[in-house]
Design goal:
The complex is a heterotrimer of chains A (362), B (239) and C (372).
Chain A (H helix, E strand, L loop, with lengths): L1 H11 L1 H21 L7 E7 L4 H12 L3 E5 L4 H11 L3 E5 L3 H8 L1 E9 L3 H25 L6 E8 L7 H31 L1 H7 L4 H29 L9 H25 L3 H19 L11 H6 L4 H15 L3 H29 L1
Parallel strand pairs in A: 1-2, 1-3
Antiparallel strand pairs in A: 3-4
Chain B lengths: L1 E12 L2 E12 L3 E5 L6 H8 L7 E6 L2 E2 L4 H7 E4 L11 H11 L4 H14 L15 H12 L6 E5 L7 H16 L3 E6 L2 H4 L4 E6 L2 E6 L1 H8 L4 H10 L1
Parallel strand pairs in B: 3-8, 3-9, 6-7, 7-8
Antiparallel strand pairs in B: 1-2, 1-4, 4-5, 9-10
Chain C lengths: L1 H16 L1 H21 L7 E7 L4 H12 L3 E6 L3 H9 L5 E5 L3 H6 L4 E8 L3 H25 L10 E9 L7 H31 L1 H6 L5 H31 L7 H25 L3 H19 L10 H7 L3 H15 L7 H25 L2
Parallel strand pairs in C: 1-2, 1-3
Antiparallel strand pairs in C: 3-4
Helix pairs in contact in C: 1-9, 2-7, 2-9, 7-9, 7-10, 7-11, 7-13, 9-10, 10-11, 10-13, 10-14, 11-13, 13-14
The chains are: A alpha/beta (362), B alpha/beta (239), C alpha/beta (372).
Amino acid sequence: MILRKEFIHIFRDKITLFLVLAMPIALVLLFGFTISSDIRNAKISVLDQANDSQSKKLIEKITASGYFQVVSYPNNEVEIDDDFKSKNIKLAIIIPARFEESLSNEHEASLQVINDVSDLNVASVLNNYVRAVVHSFTEEYNSKTGETTPFDITTKMLYNPEMNSVYMFVPGIITLIMILVTALLTSITLAREKETGTMRMLLITPVKKIHIVLGKVIPYMIISFISTIIILVLSVFVFKMPINGSIPFLLFLCIIFMLTAASFGMLISSISSTQLDAMMITMMGLFLPTVLLSGFLFPLNSMPMVFQVLANVFPAKWFILAIKDVMIKGAGFFDIWKYLLILFAMAVVFISFSLMRLDKRN
Amino acid sequence: MNSIEVHDLTKQFGAFTAVNHISFEVREGEIFGFLGANGAGKTTAIKMMSGLLQPTSGTAIIAGYDVRTQSKLIKRNIGYMSQRFSLYNDLTVFENMQLFGTIYKIPRKELKERIHTSLKELDMDQHANTLVEAIPLGWKQKLAFATAILHRPKIVFLDEPTSGVDPIVRREFWKLIYDTASTGVTILVTTHYMDEAEYCNRISIMAEGELKLIGTPDELKKKMAATTINDVFVKFVRR
Amino acid sequence: MRTILILIKKEFLQVFRNPLLIGILTVAPMVQFIIFPFCADYEIKVLHIAFIDNDHSTISQDLTHTFNASGYFISHGLVKNKKEAEKMMKHDKIDILVEFPHDFERSLYNNEPTQIAITANAINTMKAGIGTGYVQNIIGDYLNDFAQNNRPPQAPTKVSINISNVYWYNEQMNYKNLIVPGILVILVTLIGCYVTALNLVREKEIGTIEQVNVTPIRRWQFLLGKMIPFWILGISEFIIGLVIMKLVFGITVQGSIPMLLGCTAIYLLVMLGLGFFISSIADNQLQAMFIVLFLFIVFVLLSGLFTPTEGMPEWAHKINYLNPMSFFMNVIKKVVLKGTEVESLRTEFIVLSVMAVVINTGAVVSYKESSK
């Protein structure tokens, strides 16, 4: 009965329903297509103080690599500074005078690379590229004199051979959406019933308390379950992400997490009295920690110890660990039962606490 | 002289016709009652006449101005009070009146005086600095009315002003309406309390977006062979 | 003029009487400033590495020790076999595995080809890419040195090119220098867009907006009366943020502060307009919140705050031309970190101004439409 009422509410508010279902799709597509650690055509400047045949060859090699795009040839270091500021270049390479001579006479030359380290990761990636290009330049130079380097390094990218950034973000987006839909909507609708006084009316009816709460929570769990499936389908068919674990087990895991998220929503609504309160507490208490402390965007082990410890309190961390293992590494129940247990225990604690609060009010 | 002249006024929301070709006139200083069940189209009609909604077709001349082209002039000459209480709860009584008075461009000094006299008449002058959320509902309604006539409008639209208010306050409220009408202000009021309809100079009954009956309370009672307006309404619905 | 002043007064009175809003405006920025820079650290500082040594030679052992010396790696030592190593990787104990082949040392001395295998956990592509790069460089440098020192006397000298890196605009290589100004952007955006959108939708939900609509007030007057208070709040927050940035994180603005404030003022106008636009199309606070949140995520994602924009496809770059946050992010990076002169900010300045005009016109028009 209450279940049906809630569904009618949801379907009447078509805009919200649309937002709730369209948002995950847009997010997955955006994350999937835009985030890539592979940098192409980074803008650079080359200050060629040598201007000889070898320096030209090097520049040619740099351009041909596809990683870089030489946008300017400054004449001195002051102009390099200008390039960084107005042309938005990411690095500058200075080829010293007498480059060719140094190579043939002293068998040694040095290049100077100036990095814009206002973004450290970009700088690191580009430095690796520069090294690779210069390495192959020297190889070529040496091969003319009959020498080859005897060693070879092969690299294998485990779990994600195509270096697809979606692998990292899909679990995170699923978590985010489930939290947004399940916890946020649950807490807001429960808070709305409280705000308008209809909750009290429901509570004096002979319906069991747990049924009232379940009736409110289940519709949102179903919606977020649908979103989750949409995200999974997109990531498998559009981004070719594998699901290495068993699909029923994966869905089971999602349901457990949804339960935890919904119970968190109930907890929030039990301590807030208006919709706005519920919204703010969910954002501060759940959304931000999920983004920051779940290891979804930012590696947990680079954080100060306090935050690493704090992260354990929020369900998102455990779910992301579990879902990554199941989807990508093909883990089964015995690999991740610990995470499941933690999530389930959290749900039990949250639910009993909020039912207790509901009791007290009446 | 007529202060409201409505002719074939119609409003459609998509396929739904909320107000269907209604026509009537209201004289200056008259208290005109709009009766009808919820959803009969009363609020939509009022919103069109006060310039909140553009009509789909038909004309309405309010205080001599056309709602289609002169809504700004209309707004300056009318007062409006909606069925939802819509003063700011988180402002004080004085702050609310000052806010709306200033929007109507009442000079600073005069505004202060008007607020003062108006609160005195309502017997609320000691509550001038109380937050609106802290005062009881009946007082809130009276306050909303006082705020709506602060700029001395020629016409006041009252949309269910007394819903949810106890009978004593309702009577006080109607005294306010009478006092205001006696100064020459035209009042158009909607209500679903049939006893209130007896207080009006003339009333009209709306149903399904159409104006079904119009006349003085006595005329209508005679016409329907009823003793009270309530009977009129019941008989009308049965018909 | 008097009308607008009284509206501004009304808005300030309401803000200061709402403890929750005061909380959002004061506590939230504090929390963001305290927590964000420590958590939102995208930099790869630590990589866990393990080795499989099939050679057990002096060179392979020496090479493994080289990794300990570099600050990036935490070595988990030697692992017996591939199976065990993959298990460690599965449980996130290690990020990278290096395997030396049988006969590694002998091949090197005899100048025969030999192969070193690196395996990386590539779920985090950024980490894997940078990590394997580091590993290749360390091994490459080591073996090149080895080759130089052990070449037969009659062989021609091989050339080598040294690369020396110079770091500009963030000499301490501190990630906070990027993230802290980024938080400023987020703060200004949230106040501009989120708070105003919710504010106006709330008036719609409660019904107070109807009482205002029935007065002869003009739409732009009403919107201006809402805009100015939040604009003032936004600028104040930004200034407080700058002070915190200087005092707590020691980041000094390199460029012109008036220029920075000017751009912030215009950016705030864009965000305020967007907030009003959203509130005119949303029916209730929940919808407004979802739309704002969604746009916010998209803006942040495309602005290059947390992820490099260089790796994005062409169409994403095109969308970014519509993303006010990315232009503002550029301004902040340029003025705060690089100390760019006023002239090179012309593009951003013009674009933001145009956006401000367009979105605010749109807001006034759609507000008019919605109240018909």
